[in-house]
Amino acid sequence: MNVVETLTAHHATLRQLYRQAETNPNKFDTFIQHLVVHHTMEEKYFYDLLQGFEEAQHDSLEAVNEHHIIEMIIKDAQGFPRDHRNFPIKIEGLGEYTVHHLDEEEEEIFPLATQLFEAEDLDTLGALFEKAKEELLGVSLPELPKALAAKFPGLQQPSLETGASQQRLTTSNTAFGLGIGGLK
C-alpha cells in the first residue's frame, strides 16, 4: 500500500476506536495511543516531506496546527476524572474534532500528495508507515530511507533515542516530547 492508502486505512481504525470509546470509556486510552502514534507518523514522515512542495505548504501547516489543537484536547481529557458524568462529553469533543480533521486530510491533502509525490516515494513511505506503526505501538521510529531523505535536504531524521536506551511512547510523554502539532 502507498502512504495515502496506509494513512486512510489507519483513519478507519481511528474512527472505529473513537466509536468504541464513546460507548466504553475504557477504550479511551487505546484511541489516544493510536491517535498519538498516527500524528507522530504523519508529522515526521508525511507533513515534513509534503511541506517541501510550495503548493502544499499551507495545507501541511494547517494540518499540523490541527494536530496541536487535538493534542490540547487530549491533555484536557486526560486530566478529567474518568468517573465524572461529563467525561463522555470530553471523548465526544475529541472524537468529533478528530473525525473532521481526518475528513479534511482525505478530501483535500491526500489527493494533493498523490499528485506531488512520485509513485515510488508514495510506496516507500507506505511501507515505512506500516513499519513505524508497528514500532510506535511498541518502541521506536525507523529512519527514512537514505534515497528518499536525500530528496529533502535539511530534513532532520526522526529519532526517539535518549542515550543508549529508547523511550517508550506513552500518551503522557509523546505529544509534547515529539513536538506533535509544533509549527516549525
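The above is record 1. Record 2 follows with the same two-line structure.
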Amino acid sequence: TEESFVCTCRAGFLLNPDGKTCTKTGYCALNNHGCEHNCVNTEESFICTCCSGFILNPDGKTCKQLGYCALGNHGCEHNCINTEDFYVCSCRTGFILNPDGKTCRRGDLCAENDHGCEHLCLNTGGYYVCQCFEGFVLNDDLKTCSRVDNCALADHGCEHLCLNKEDSYICQCFEGYILNDDGKSCRSKDICNTIDHGCEHVCVNIENGFACKCFEGYILGEDGKSCKRCAEGVLDLVFVIDGSKSLGAHNFEVVKQFITGIVDSLEISPNAARVGVVQYSTKVHTEFTLGSYISGKDVKEAVSQIKYMGKGSMTGHALKHMYENSFTDAEGARLPSSKVPKAVIVFTDGRAQDDVSEWANKAKNSGITMYAIGVGKAIEEELREIASEPQEKHVYYAEDFSSMSDIAEKLKTRICEGIALMHGMSCTNKMHNQLKDTPPPQKKSHKIQLPVAMLVSKLENYYIIPNTKLFQFFGSIKIKYLEKPSGEEQCKCENLVAFQDFANKEVRKLTQRLAEMASRLEALEKNIEFK
C-alpha cells in the first residue's frame, strides 16, 4: 500500500491470522459452486452431491428424489410402489395383500372371478383352470365339458348294443335276448324255440339255457331229456297239520292246497296209496283216516272240507296221537307184515307248546318216515327233532307261505324216489313242475300270450289259457302241450295255486326290469343334461 503492504492469497486459499500465510479453503467456500444440496471440494475443483433419498441430475448440480422403495426398509413382501410422497406395497398375481399392508396371501381366483367353468374350477399358481367330472372331457373352449363316449373310443365288440358307463362301457342285448358270459355276445331267451332241444315232454327256457321237464306221473331220465313213468307203488301217508291261531285262516287254506298238490302226485286206491289227515291245535283231531277214501278225488274233496281250529299249538300231543292211532288196522293202515311204507308229513308254523322229541323218535324207530315242514317262526332245531335222517331230505323250511309250492315239488320228488326204490327202480332226484298224469301225445307247439295288464289285475282270481295244460308259463314262451283238458282240471286248486306262484315270480321279474329301465332313462337324462 502507500504506507506498507498486505498479503493476499490465491483463489482457493484463505489468509491466515498472521496476515502472511495462506490456507487452502476449497472452491465450495467461494459460494459460487451452484450445488443444490451439497458441495464437495476436490484437489483442483469441487463436485455436487445430493442428500439421502435423492440422486444428482445430469446437470451435475441439481437433485431429484430417488423414492422410498429404494431405501430398502419398506417391508413389502412382494412389490413396493413409490407414490408422490411415500410408497405402497402390492402382491404378485394370484395373491392378495393382507390387512397389514405389507405381507401377501394366496388368492382364490375361482371364487373371486367369473371363471365360466361348466363343472370344476381349479386354482393354480397364479391363475385357474377348468376341469370336468369323471366320465367327461374338456372342450376346446377350455371351459365347457362333454361326456366321454367310451363306446366310440374303443372297439367294444358288443354284438347288439353298447352302453356308456362312468369310466367304461357295457354291452346289452335287444329285447328277447340275454347277454352271454363273455359280456359281449347275445343269445335268445327262447332257446326252446331256436334249437333242437330233444326234450321228450316239455322244454322250458331258463336263465342260462333250457331244461327238460316231464308230465305229472313221469320223472326225468338220467340223460336230462327223456321221461319215464314214476312207479305206482303202495304207501300209507298221514298229514299232521298245524291249525294253531298263529297260522291264520288264509294260510290254513294254503296248507290244504299244499296237501292237494301232494295227493295229485299219488295213485290213490285201496291197493296203492292211502292218505289220512290229522289237525292239531290245543286239541288233536283226526280229520279222516287212511281207510276213509279210496280215490284222489274223494281225498281232495275231504281236504277242502277241513275246518280251521285256530287255537294253541300242541305238536307233541299230535305226534303221540298219530303214533298211537293213525297207522292202526282200525284206521285203515296196512299190517306191518305187508311191508307197506309208512310216511308222515308234519307241518308247523312255530315252536310247539310241548315236547316233540319223544313221540317223533318213537315213530321213527317204528319205521315211519318223518318229513318236517316249517314256515315263518318255525324252529329249525324242532324240525330236525321231528324229521328222519338224512335231514337234508326230510326237513323243509320257508320264510313265508309263498314258497309252499316249491316245497310241494320237492316232497313229490322224495315220495316218488321212495316208491321207485321200493320197486327196485332208479329214480332221478330231478323232478320239475309236472302236468297231469296223461300219456304224452304227438308233440306240438303252442305260444301263450297274456297281456301284462290282465295278468296283474286278475292275478288273484283269474286264469284261462285255452287249448293247453301247461299252466305254469305265460308271456311268449314256446312250449309243448296236450289236447284241451276238461274244465274241471283247468280249475283245480293246485293248478290255480301253482299258476299264482309262478305269476308272482314273473311280476317280480317285471318289476325288476322296470327298475332297470328307469335307471337307464335317468342315465340318458344326465347324458342329455351335460351335453
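The radius of gyration is 52 Å.
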